[in-house]
Amino acid sequence: MVVKKSILNKLYVVTVLMTLFFGVILFRIFKLQYVEGSKYRELSKINTVKNDTIFANRGNVYASDGNLLATSMSKFTVRMDVMTVKSSVFEKNISALSEALSGLLGKSPSYYKKKLREAKKRKNRYLLIARNVGYNDYAKMKTFPVFNLGVFKGGFIAEQQTVRVHPIGKIAERTIGYDDYRGGAGIEGAFASYMQGENGWRLKQKIAKGQWKPINDVNEKEPIDGHDVITTIDVNIQDITHHALLKQMEKFKADHGCAVVMEVETGKIKAISNLGRTKKGKYYEKRNYAVWESHEPGSTFKLASLMAALEDKVADTSTVVDCEKGKIFINNRKVEDSRAGGHGKISLGRVFEVSSNVGIVKVIRKHYDDKPEKFIEKIKSFGLDRQTGVKIKGEGKPFIIEPKHKIWSPISLEWMAWGYGVSLTPLQTLAFYNAVANNGKLVKPYFVRELRVGNKVDKKYGTVVLKEKIASQSTIDKVRKVMENTVIRGTAKRINSPNFSMAGKTGTAKKWIPRHKNSNGKMVSGYYSSAKYVASFAGFFPAKEPKYSCIVVIHEPRKELGYYGADVAAPVFKEIAHKIYTTTPVDNQFVTDTISYPALNKSYHNYYAKMRKYKTIMPKVTGMSGMDAIALLENMGLVVKFSGMGKVVEQSIDNGMKITKGATVYLRLS
To answer: What angle do CA 146, 148, 152 make, to 5 degrees?
Structure first.
C-alpha cells in the first residue's frame, strides 16, 4: 500500500511537471505567434528573402552624327580560390593554365606559374588574375585548364561590373567626362542626373548552396533607363583637331595645350582637344584646359584693344602710329617688339598685323591713360568679363583688372593693351573671336544638342544669343579685314594658303610664375619667365563667310625649339582648317577641283592687277584707301611713310616713274 502510494505521488509530480512543461511550450508558441511573430517573420525575411536591385542602363553619349562616344559595358574581375583545387589537379594542370593565361593576358608563362605556386603556398583564396576583362575573354578563361572545373573544383571566381567605355578611345575623353568615384566631369558629370536612370528591384528567395531565385515571374519595380545625350561634337573634326594638336605638342615638347573648333553661327562646339604631358613625354586628356584654365592671353587680346579704339572713334585702322625702334619705357618698365629695330611709322591696322606691342600700347595710352575706366567698360561690353556659362563644370573665371583693384598700378592699362594683367580661358577668348566672325553677334558655346529616351527627343538645346551686337558693323568689318591681312602678310603669313582663306591673330605671352620656394627652400617673388611661354592663335575660316572659329593654345613649348604663336600654334590652326575644307562638305567654302573664291578674287582683283603691271613702275595710288595703298606699295618692296588717315590725296613719287626696291615713298592721307 505504501509502495503504491509512493508510485502515485511520483506520478502526480511527473504529471504536474509535464503539465507545466507543456504550458510553457504553449505560452512560448502563443508569444512567438501572436506577440513576437512579426519580429521573427521579419528576421526570417531578412535572411531568406531580399530585394535584388535591377540596375538601370545608364544613357549613352553620342556625337552629332550618331557615332557612339560613351556607353556602358560589362567587365569582369577574375580571381582564383587556389585552395579549392586538389593538389593533384593543380600540379597536373599548372603549366597548361599558365600557358593559357600568358596567351591571353600577355605576361610570360613563368610569371603566372610562379604567381599560382606562391598563392597555393600562402593559401590564398582570392587571388587576383585580371581586371576589366571583356565578355569574350571572360568566356575564354572559363574554358582554361583548372578553370573549366568551375567554382568549387577549379576555384574560378568572376565578379561582373558595369563600366563606361569610350568607343573612339582617348579622343575628347576629358570633355565626354565621367561620373564615378572621381566625381563628375565633362558631359557625363554635367548630365549625370539625366543619364543615371532609375533602378528597379525584384524579390528573390534564398535556396540551397547560397543561391537566390526570383519569387515572382515579374519585377516588383521595372528599371527606367537613363537619357541618351546627343552632343554637338563631329567625330571627323574631332579626329582632325586631336591629331593636329598632338603632332605639334610632340614636335615642340610642350607641357600642355588645347584646341577648340566652334560653329560660328550657332555656337556648337564641333571639336575640343585637351592634352597634357606625362613624365615619360606621352600626351593624354589630363584636364579640360579649354574650359578650366584661365591665363594671360597675350597678343590675342590686342583684338579687344583695337576694337575699343575703333568703337570710341579715337583712332582708325589707317591712323599713323610711331612704333619708333621697337622699344619704349613706361614707368621704367620696358615694352618691346619682337622685330629688332622696330617698325617705325605704320598704320594702326598694320600695328595689329605685325603685332607691334609698342604700337598698340602707345595708342591705348594716348587715348585712355587719364580715363582707364572708359577702356575697361568697352572691354566689358565685348563680353570678356563674363563666363560663357557652358554646362560643363569647372569653367574658369575671367579677370579684367580695374583701378579699384589693389593690384592696379601705373602701368596696368598699358599692359592690359597687349594682353597682360587680364585672364581668360581659351573658350572665353574663342567666344569673343567667334562674335567678330558672326558679324558682332555673341553666342553661347554649347556641347549638347539634345537629350533622348530611346528614339524620343526629351529635351532640345539650341543657340543662345548672349548679345546681339558687341560692336558696330563698321568696326567688325575693319577688324575682320586686318585679321585676314594678318594671315596674308602679317605675323601669320607662313600659314597663308592660296587654296583657302583664313583670318586670325597670333599670340605669344610670357608665363607668370607665382611666388614660391626654390630648390634651396628660399622664397622667390613672382615674376614673368623668360623661359616659359604661352603660344596661341585664334581666328576663323573662311575669311569672307566664316563657317568655323578656332583657337589653339599651347603652354610651355621648349624655348629652343620655338615659342612664338606663329610658329607653334598657327600651324595647328592651318592644319585643322585645311583638313576641314577638304573632308567636310561646307556650302560656302567654294571647294572644287580647281579651288576658287569669287568674293575674294573680286576684292583683290585690282590689287593683284596693279602688282603684276607695276613691278618697277610707280602706280597711281591717289584716291585709294590708305590701308590698301600701303599694302600695295609695301608688297612692291617700297618703304612707305605717311601721315593722316583715310584716302590717299598725295604721293611723293608720281605714277609711271621707275622705282627701285627699298625706295621711300611719302603719302598724305585725307
So the answer is: 75
C-alpha to C-alpha distance for 254 and 568, rounded to whole angstroms: 10
Q: Which three cell numbers stand for residue 277?
A: 604631358
The Cα 490–Cα 566 span in angstroms is 10
| 69/73 Cα distance (integer angstroms) | 13
CB atoms near residue 409 (< 10 Å): 15
Please provide the average confidence, as pLDDT, over all residues in the chain: 84
> What type of residue sits at position 214?
P
- Within 8 A by CB and 6+ apart from 53, the residues are 199, 200, 201
Task: Report yes or no on whether pTM surpasses 0.85.
Answer: no
- Can you name the residues that pair with 73 across neighbouring β-strands? 163
Q: Which three cell numbers stand for residue 214?
A: 526570383
The number of beta carbons lying within 10 Å of the beta carbon of residue 236 is: 17
Q: Where are the alpha helices (DSSP H) in 370-425?
A: 372-381, 412-417
- In contact, 326 and 343? CB cutoff 8 Å: yes
b/e code 65-76 from CB counts within 10 Å (16+ = b): eeeebbbbeebb
- Site of grid cell 526570417: 44
Number of helices (H), then strands (E), in the chain: 22, 31
Candidate from 47-51, 392-396, 467-471, 590-594 with smallest mean pLDDT: 590-594
Please give the helix or strand (H or E) that residue 272 lies within, else none.
strand 269-277
Q: Are strands 345-347 and 320-322 parallel, antiparallel or unpaired?
A: antiparallel
- Report the pLDDT averaged over residues 288-301: 95
582-614 per-position pLDDT tens digit: 876 544 443 333 334 444 344 444 444 544 444
At 432, the amino acid letter reads F
> 64 with 231: CB under 8 angstroms?
yes
Give the separation between CA 289 and CA 269, rounded to whole angstroms: 15
- Residue that wins the pLDDT comparison between 521 and 586: 521
Locus of grid cell 558696330? 472
- pLDDT tens digits, 163-208: 777 776 666 777 777 666 666 677 777 777 777 777 776 666 565 5
Instruction: Encode 487-513 in three state secondary structure.
Output: HHHCCCHHHCCCCCCCEEEEEEEEEEE
Measured distance CA(289)–CA(276) in Å, rounded: 9
Geometric angle at alpha carbon 606, from 601 and 609, rounded to 5°: 95
Report helix, strand or coil for 481. helix
Of 238, 248, 83, the residue nearest 176 (C-alpha) = 238
CA–CA separation, 335 and 357 (whole Å)? 7
Helical spans, DSSP H, in 325-395 = 348-353, 357-368, 372-381
145 or 16, greater pLDDT? 145
Q: Cis peptide before 403, with omega less than 30 degrees from 0?
A: no
CA-nearest of 387, 453, 447 to 423 is 387
Do the Cβ atoms of 276 and 170 come closer than 8 Å?
A: no
pLDDT tens readout for residues 204-236: 656 554 554 455 545 566 667 778 888 999 989
**27 is written with which cell numbers?**
505560452
pLDDT given for residue 651 in this prediction: 86
The predicted-structure confidence for 465-511, as pLDDT tens digits, reads as follows: 999 999 999 999 999 999 999 999 999 999 999 888 999 999 999 99
What is the distance between the terminal CA atoms of the chain, rounded to a whole angstrom?
154
Residue pair 445/401 in contact by the 8 Å Cβ criterion = no
